[in-house]
């Protein structure tokens, strides 16, 4: 919480200070109104002077107008500060999430990161706005009301003051209970977001297998758990309202009884009793506002803790300094590399191979044998637990990420196309020329079906390209990988939806047009890798075969 306030609210301290001054002036005007009314009833009206009555009535109107205008201005400024602060925080959080390593994303989980970026930042926005709107107003109304009532009627004010320690202790105790409960609630929301995300992503499978009712029941259980957590947090925090109302109304009843006796005995005046009751109501509302602030603070504090966990996540893929480039003929080198996702059992064990510039490596093996993991390690989405990976004689840990990732063109297994035109999906913000985009589409064997579309390259895809077939999507993805003519091309099971004829034409185009590109092909079909310079056969993370197609067929 301290980090967020010091880092993101500091630039707006001058604006907040002006807003608090304006809010202070408006609050003082609100406190003056009952006092003027008391003076008017007890001292001005008995004199029977109409000009004085009108003058003090006009003064009350001025105070009310100033209170209204200043409160509106201060609230607008508070909302603006909350908006700008949350905007900066959300931007930095999104940037941090984008730069998290894959291992960190696995640890936080995608649904949790989505929840932190949306629900948690919204809770902080609400808290910052409310703290500015009520953080100065409520305490001033409370303290000012108590001080004025002490000046008006000390005996009656003691009744009110007697309830304050009990109310303060109640608010403090319940707020301490509330923060862990709201943290638990946000974790439940993470689970619900994950469930909804899975259902939306897999809607076709769910419908095809007639599992809609099953998924509805699964969501109901998750939803009921969120409701249970929210109910527990809500009930705990809501206990303050009835208890505060009970204590304050008992105090108000005692004030009315004692005040009636004092008026009857001539010890006080009706105007003072009326003003005292008004101040009592102001103090009650101030306490209720403080209670709402503590509720929002509990929720915002829990959200701030979750956001700070992401912002303070240490970069576990730092760039190493002071490297020396090894003189070697090979372009890509895996030197006794081992890796484990969960740090329990190796997913890859002692992997070694070399590739020269322009060579092709085919990786084949059973599902779960570690084929995609090799591609992930080469792009440094994860760091190996042991061993070394070099590109051009440089350890990849010494290559800046911008430089490293610009070397690659990649099609991941189950890759994604965005809800934009085919042209923009191929360009992907790289400002490529139209010729580069068209050539990439031609090499990827996508030009034929693109030309058949009325809009051509300007054909707009739906989210996840559901308006294209599986083979068409794969060809657009391959075009995106080829468009910038990368130094290293990674095709991770990218031709599984292509027919043999199209697959053969694609491999022919890669051999002719990308001779200098070092290519790694992860495949299930032998035909996709049989012409590669080297073929790596994996089984349960271990190398069980390495060589050309002919060599592997022999042994």
Structure description:
With 555 residues, the protein is of the alpha/beta class. The chain has 2 domains: 2-310, ABC transporter type 1, transmembrane domain (ABC transporter transmembrane region fold, Up-down Bundle); 332-554, 3-Layer(aba) Sandwich (Rossmann fold), CATH 3.40.50.300. The protein is 64% helix and 10% strand. It has 19 helices and 10 strands. It has helices at residues 2-9, 13-44, 50-99, 102-108, 110-134, 137-152, 154-201, 203-208, 212-238, 240-264, 270-311, 371-378, 401-406, 422-427, 434-443, 447-451, 470-482, 500-513, 549-554; strands at 332-339, 348-355, 360-365, 386-391, 394-395, 408-411, 488-492, 518-523, 534-539, 542-547. The protein has a 6-stranded mixed sheet with strand order 6-7-8-3-9-10, with helices on both faces. Strands 2-1-4-5 form a 4-stranded antiparallel sheet, with helices on one face. Helix 5 (110-134) packs antiparallel against helix 7 and helix 7 packs antiparallel against helix 9 (212-238). The chain is elongated, with a radius of gyration of 35 Å.
